[in-house]
Structures are given as structure tokens and as C-alpha cells.
What we know:
Enzyme class: oxidoreductase
GO molecular function: NADP binding; shikimate 3-dehydrogenase (NADP+) activity
Bound molecules: NADP nicotinamide-adenine-dinucleotide phosphate
Binding site for NADP(+): 124-128, 210, 233
Order of helices and strands: EHEHEEHEEHEHEHEEEHEHH
Subunit structure: Homodimer.
Structural class: alpha/beta
Helix content: 25-40%
Number of domains: 2
Domain SDH C-terminal: 233-263
Amino acid sequence: xxxxxxxxxxxxxxxxxxxxxxxxxxxxxxxxxxxxxxxxxxxxxxxxxxxxxxxxxxxxxxxxxxxxxxxxxxxxxxxxxxxxxxxxxxxxxxxxxxxxxxxxxxxxxxxxxxxxxxxxxxxxxxxxxxxxxxxxxxxxxxxxxxxxxxxxxxxxxxxxxxxxxxxxxxxxxxxxxxxxxxxxxxxxxxxxxxxxxxxxxxxxxxxxxxxxxxxxxxxxxxxxxxxxxxxxxxxxxxxxxxxxxxxxxxxxxxxxxxxxxxxxxxxxx
Length: 269
Ligand code: NAP
């Protein structure tokens, strides 16, 4: 039996176990997916221990995504993003990846949105914002990052090819954009909040909200009202998991089974 898992703190409400276990059930893979919650100072010991115990792969979440970068051999994208959310113990040195980036691009792809030549605005410059900005630029979009703390957006934009950055006063760039990503936590657990004023939204946009609780955020509701294409945060969560499954197993992931398990558990939250 192979063991995969998630390391983070806290991990109690994670949706990754049912999503990955559904994939094992569907593909007949003899594997389990478990959660680990080490103390903040114990992450290096936890990664070493998992390797020594023969764990096949780990997802990594808050607060360890940056710490793990130093503990594994990161691929160039994870290194540029500055965070690892997936470890593959198959190689001699554990390899680190950032599948949040693929979660973003695969979400647009799945909804028929061509990112090549697109004008994209990413709101947020934290972990999700960094992954989105690099992923969209690598897919051929021109990227503008807008963040509450303008300096973080400017700093991120300087590292992303062709990108620009600024404060939330630059959100009017959305009027000329065709792709919008909310990579802030605004709207999470608070359905009345939105990171983007409705006046900037229009029917030519495809909008991905990284927030997945609730699934229908105020941003997505207001975007849908303009005729925009809307993509909820469960797609990004699903497709980062799909990417991790494929990295670990070398097989195509059973996307529909994983999606059904994820959405059924999200319904219970
Ligand atoms: P993070 O690193 O802590 O970054 C938080 C971001 O939100 C920062 O840009 C921060 O701006 C901004 N922000 C927070 N409160 C704000 C407010 N009141 N007004 C404006 N901006 C505000 O968090 P993260 O890991 O990037 O996660 C961000 C969101 O994405 C969370 O809701 C998370 O659940 C979601 N997420 C979803 C997926 C998925 O698969 N769907 C994956 C990763 C993350 P400052 O820099 O100014 O503080």
C-alpha cells in the first residue's frame, strides 16, 4: 500500500483526503491519503520522517509552503513562486512542486478560456496570488497584480515576465482585461464582502475566485450578472489535486470522480 498525505497546521477541515481517496477508489490504486499536523518547528523532522517511513507523496499547506522550499529539490516554477505545495518522495532527493499554478491554468482551460494573449488581473499577492501570476504569465497572458499592500504587488510583478503591479486603486485595469483572479481571502466565510467593486466587471471577463467557502461568492454572483464566465474556487482546488495525483502516480487522474467527492464534501461545509 502507498501512503500519501497532507502536512499543515491546521488540517482538520481539509477536503484533500476525500478527493484523493475517491481517485484511489476509481483507479483501483492501493493507497491511502492521511493528514499530518506537526508543530511549526517540526516541519523539517516531519519531511525527513515521512521520507524515511516510505511515504510516497505529501501535499503541503499553511503554514509550511515556504519552509518546505528549503527542504526539497524544488522545480523551477516552485522556486520562482517561492512555495511548494506538493512533495514527491519518488526521487533520491524529495522533489517539490507548486500545483496551485496548474490549478489556476487548468481551471481556465477547463472552461474554454484561452490564456494566450489574454490581459489578466490578479487581485492578491500572497501565496495564491504568486502562483496565479506566474502561471498566467507562463501561459502567455499579460499580468497586472493589484494588492492591498501595493509594495507586495510591485515586488511580485518585478519577478513575473511582463507584469505590472500596484495597489487596489489600480483595479480599474479590470475594465480592459479578459481574465480576473481573486487570490485574496476577501469573501471567505463572509458572503457580503467582495475584493472588486461591481462597476469594474463586464461580460468579456472570465473570473476565477480562489475562495471556495462559499462556492458562490459575491464576486462571482456580480460577475455572472454581467454575463462573465465564472469559475469557483473548487475548480482550482480540484485541479491542483489532479495535478498532484498525476505527478505522483504518472497516471491520468479520474477528474470527474475527484470532482464529485470534493463537491459532495463542500456541500457539507
Ligand atoms: P495569503 O498568502 O495569506 O495572502 C492573502 C492575500 O489576501 C494577500 O494578498 C492580502 O493582502 C489579501 N487580503 C487579505 N485580507 C484582505 C482585505 N481585507 N482586503 C484586501 N486584501 C486582503 O493567503 P493565500 O494562501 O494566498 O490564500 C488566499 C485565498 O486563496 C484564501 O481564501 C485561500 O483559501 C484561497 N486559496 C484557494 C486555493 C484553491 O485551490 N482554491 C489555493 C490556495 C489558496 P496583503 O498583502 O495586503 O495582506
